[in-house]
Amino acid sequence: MTSENGNISVPSANSAVARPKPIIQGWLSLVGRLFSRNAATEAVATSVHFHASPETVWQGMLSYEEVPVSPPFLLRVLLPNPVRTEGDKTCVGADVQCRYKGGDMVKRITVVERPHLMQFEVTQQRLGIEGCITTLGGSYQIRSCGDQTEVVLTTNYRGHLRPRYFWRPLERFLAHQLHRHILDGMRASLPRSTRSAIAERSMPKGIAPREATCTTSQSRFHR
Fold it and tell me: Which CATH number among 3.30.360.10, 3.30.110.40, 3.30.530.20, 3.40.630.30 corresponds to the domain 43-218?
């Protein structure tokens, strides 16, 4: 939704378009109203490797619409669960509708560099958690790594709950869980021969070889 001055607006959690939400999400929404809006932008990125070419992975990103697997427990409890996407992901300026259980989000495509980069901004968020988190945008980066392809899914957001040092780790953990869930759906759209999914990587002792690499960053002007 765009206001008269051209700025992107995000409906509030108590607006008329807000969807019904589970008890825990409703409680988080109420807690979020106690805090002023946070201006600092943060980013969370999750990286996985596929045994497929960048072009094949790109086609998988474009073709997947429904996430076929059940999300992890904490994701089901604390966040609206992604169900499917609708819209053209190949055209700059196109709107993609992301359906969630209990809400929806609209992403506008801002950059397309086939088969390596797709960036988007969030123009509408109606998930019932706007008092806690406002999603700003993100990107899919696809790059060749030898005989594998690395996919980096990034989300840019503002977290409003304070103190930030307490809430930020939970936000990042849930973002990584959501990323993995989405990438699982993307993997399911690939040809069967490439679904062996995440390639084994060199990781610190004690981390399972199928674990995705997760990175986080944040604005230095956070509170």
Answer: 3.30.530.20
